[in-house]
Write a structure and sequence with these properties.
The structure is a homodimer. By secondary structure, chain A is of the alpha/beta class. The first copy, chain A, contains 6 helices and 6 strands, in the order E-H-H-H-E-H-E-E-H-E-E-H. Chain A has a single domain, classed as Rossmann fold (3-Layer(aba) Sandwich), CATH 3.40.50. Helices cover about 35% and strands about 15% of the residues of chain A. Chain A has a 6-stranded parallel sheet with strand order 3-2-1-4-5-6. The first copy, chain A, is globular. Chain A starts with a strand and ends with a helix. At the A-B interface, helix 4 and strand 3 of A face helix 4 and strand 3 of B.
Chain lengths: ~170, ~170
C-alpha cells in the first residue's frame, strides 16, 4: 500500500477559519489576506492583536473545537481503505494542543487509529509516497510526491502541484 | 549532520523501573522478569494486577515524574552538538502521556527544542541514519543503522547490535 502523509491544520482542520470568525465577531475588524502570503496566516491579523491571537492559539481547548475542512472526512475515509494514511501535525510548538488534536481527530475521523497519528515539530524525518501539506517548509524535504494544499497564506507559491480541495484529492487518489 | 532517532521509554525515561518500585512498595510482590521476554514488561507483573498496571500507565501524570536513565542526559547533550537528534516516542496509545512526556523531556533535557520531539503511534514512517530503541517492532522497518537498547524485556533477542547503557552509546557516537 502506498503511504500518504496528510497534514492537519488548514488541510483537514481549520484553525485559521475559526480564528478569523471569532476575531471578526469580537473586534469587527477586517483581515488582510495579502499579508498572509509568505507562510503565516497570523500576519493577516492587525499587528496590535497578533500576540493575543498567538496566545489564543496556545491555549488549551482551541484545537479541540475546530471546524473540519469540507469533504475531508468523506474522501479520507475512502482513501483509508486503499492507502496507508498518516496524519502528521507539527504540533509540539503548541504543547496544549497535543491532546486536543488527538481527541479532535478521533471525534471527526473515527476510522483512524492512534497508530496513524504523528505529532511532531519538524516533518523532515517523515517518509512516504505522497504528502499533502499547506506549508512549503514541510514539503521541501519530502522524498515522495508533494502536493501543496491551497490555503490563503500560500496563494503566491507557484512551484508545487496543488490540491485545492478534497474533491480534487478524490480525483487524484480514488 | 547524521540523524539519530532516540526512543524515550526504557531508553532515556524509565517507566518500567518506576512501576516496579511502586508495585513492590504497594503490594510487596515480586516481578517475574522471564515473563517479560517477548517484548512487554507488563507481563512481568502478576496476571491479576496487569489491568491495574495498565490503567496507572494510562493515567495523567504518570509519565511526568519518571526517573531518567543513567548517563543519558550527559551523553545526549554532547551528541546533540554533533548529530541531528530526534526523540521519537510511540505515545499516541496513551493520550494522557503526550503533554507529560513533552514536559518531562524539556525538564531533564533542556538542550532539546520542541522541533526535536516526535510523538507517534508507529515509527515506520521515521527516517534517519541511526536508531536506538528497546523494541524490535520499532527497529524492524528502519532503513539506517539499528541499535537495540538493552532492557529486561529484550534480553532474549539475538539478531540486533546492542547498546547496553549510555556509556556504550558515548563510545560509539562520540
Amino acid at each position: 500500500m502506498n503511504r500518504v502523509i496528510v497534514d492537519m491544520d488548514e488541510v483537514i482542520a481549520d484553525p485559521m477559519g475559526e480564528m478569523i470568525s471569532w476575531y471578526k465577531e469580537q473586534y469587527g475588524l477586517e483581515i488582510d489576506y495579502n499579508k498572509m502570503l509568505g507562510g503565516s496566516w497570523l500576519k493577516g491579523f492587525p499587528v496590535q492583536h497578533q500576540d493575543m491571537i498567538r496566545e489564543r492559539l496556545m491555549s488549551e481547548g482551541f484545537f479541540r473545537k475546530l471546524p473540519v475542512i469540507k469533504d475531508s472526512v468523506r474522501v479520507l475515509k475512502e482513501m483509508n481503505e486503499r492507502y496507508e494514511i498518516f496524519i502528521v501535525s507539527a504540533a509540539t510548538e503548541f504543547p496544549n494542543s497535543l491532546k486536543d488534536k488527538m481527541e479532535w481527530l478521533f471525534e471527526h475521523f473515527p476510522f483512524f487509529s492512534w497508530r496513524q497519528l504523528v505529532l511532531c515539530g519538524d516533518k523532515k524525518l517523515v517518509q512516504g509516497d505522497y504528502m499533502i501539506d499547506d506549508h512549503v517548509r514541510n514539503l521541501r524535504h519530502f522524498n515522495g510526491k508533494k502536493y501543496l494544499y491551497t490555503s490563503a497564506h500560500n496563494l503566491d507559491i507557484t512551484d508545487y502541484e496543488r490540491i485545492n480541495n478534497w474533491q480534487e484529492a478524490a480525483d487524484i487518489f480514488l
